[in-house]
Amino acid sequence: MAVCQSYRNLNRDEIFEVLDSAEYCRLGTAQEDQPYVVPMYYRWRFDENGRAWFRLFSEPCGRKMDEMEANSLVALEMELPVDGAIRTVVVQGRVYRFVPPCGPDLRSIEVYAAEISGREITSVLNEGSDLS
Questions:
Q1: Do you know which Pfam families this protein is assigned to (predicted)?
Q2: Integer Cα distance of 114 and 91 in angstroms
């Protein structure tokens, strides 16, 4: 069985719907040409200049924290299933700062969004096709 997919770009309101509704995001970091992706809870907002910011919550130490301190460029991905499709939003950004602990053993991470894009992806399974 092969999977074919089609997509369309999301408009601004659809992107905001995904950002408001997704339960978590996936944070992508990279160090020494090796990507690393982990799920994280987040909140997002616009600042007074209309720039999008994301706040992530994390343990104060570990691989992702080490990687973000070495390379502040990150990606975030959020998704929302809708009517037989998936709406996905990808954020390219930079870690701006680590905020002091926000609770027992948690730290808050501020990410400035340099670029935000979204797509709705619909897949179709073709019977009898071989994936190998």
A1: Pyridox_ox_2 (PF12900)
A2: 7
d(CA 86, CA 84): 7
Q: CA 35, CA 31: separation in Å to the nearest integer?
A: 7
Name the CATH superfamily housing domain 9-121: Electron Transport, Fmn-binding Protein; Chain A (2.30.110.10)
Residue 130's Cβ-count burial label (10 Å; 0-12, 13-18, 19+) is exposed
Residue-wise pLDDT for 67-123, tens only, equals 988 999 999 999 999 988 999 999 999 998 776 666 666 778 899 999 999 999 997
52 pLDDT more than 60: yes
Higher pLDDT, 22 or 32: 22
The pLDDT of residue 3? 66
Beta-bridge partners for 125? 3
> What's the Cα-to-Cα distance from 6 to each of 1, 26, 81, rounded to whole Å?
17, 22, 15
d(CA 25, CA 76): 6
